[in-house]
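User: quick one, fold this
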Amino acid sequence: MRAVGLLLPFVAFAADTPTFTASSVVPINAAPSEPFRQFMLVSIYGRHLGPDPGCTPDRGTSPEPAELCGVSVTVGGRNAGLLYVQEKQINLRVPAAPEGMVDFVVTYNGLSSAPVPIPFPPLPTSIKLTGPAYIDMPIWIQVGLPDPQWRSLRYPVTIWPADFGGHQFEVRRDGVDFPPIKLANSFPKSFSGPGGLGMIGGGSMLGLPHEPKNRSRLPLHLIYRFDQPGRYEVRYTGRDMGGQVLVRSGWLQFEVQDFPPSQRTAWLAEMRRTAPSDPAELMSDFLPSILAVPDRTVLSMLEDYLYNSSDLVRKYTMYALYAFDNDLVIQEIPRLVEKRGPTDELAYLLSWRRNQFQPQASALVHSIVKYLDSPTPLLSSGALQALYFVKGGYDWKADPGMPAFMDNQVLARADRFIETRDVTILQPLALYLGTWKADQSRDLLWRIVEQGTTVRGQALICLTWIGDPRDLPRLGSYNTGEIDYHLNLAYGAAAAPYLKGHK
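Assistant:
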């Protein structure tokens, strides 16, 4: 940092508490009446705010420092970036700030000012419907976010169709809060993989192969079911990763009109006929539109997309199943597996909802094993993944011979699977073999290890699941910290001579 003006001895600095008022906190290069917002440049005027000679950061410092010449400023508990500090003035950049009254606190040489509350209203934004609103039909809301917040909006926001992340809506009907859709099942969530946090002003969005044609609109009908005509109101709120409000619209009134079932049937037929093939357009327009009413007809339309060549489309469609009636899904998914086979996504669905599919467990296995012979890796790997989940996750008391039946079915095809060297097949094969404590499974896993493919690490871990003491010396020769962890977990004290001491 460099000093501006004549440097004075440190002892000459006054050790008084910093003081300033709300009226002396003003925006830089903006009208005094302009609302405070995050990342705005602001000046604070007062007394004992810093050293008498002014200080600025060293040239080229980025981002602005949170401490400068003994001075720091917090805004709502977050450190501000400092541009200039002096006895009577501080210039700073506001950090990501919450909505409402936000405390500014200046600290200089260990002495802190009293909190000075400053109002931070949310940024205004505009919303509008993209067309007329009808019952049981898609209702899209265009959101006109200011710069740079508009970069945080693009549907789909996450891989879960009805998850808009930090983009939220409230709806009222005749002045009364209108309840959102309540799903019978909550879907499993993970912030790894293809999903994103989807927060305005931070986080990440679902990665798409390219930007969709209509970027800044959201499908309101996925979180509210409009099945009755009438007058409604909607308001949008954008929140940051901490849940604080950054952007808010006013209330928009709109009329939902009646729509005959025959017209909806004709519309669905036209949507099926003109469905795009592009993954981005499927997920940003076609699929969310037809999900306005998740009924049997729409479920039949989703079938092809559960087998789409794009893994993102398959995942999005699988998560869309959580909007459908439980009984319909439990009835139709086993039929679909029988007719077209399991995919990796359907395997996860069978696992997550195993309590509901349990009564059909044996029939499911017989449907799945047929697809072990599929020449299509999507189906053969899906069959292996499904058997891995079904064998370990379902209750086989009523059919105790079924686990051995599955083992024999996999064993009969294992040579061919290994010879493919296809990672998408070898990965679920290794997982399945790890559930089978037998010499045959151990030998097959060692063959996968010896191939040296990217599945080798998984095969080694699966060998520790089997936990055969004969494998311990050989496993101990693999010098990785992850293997050490699994050796210790599986073999306990017996593994100590073979551990490499990785941290």
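User: anything notable?
Assistant: The longest helix spans residues 402-420.
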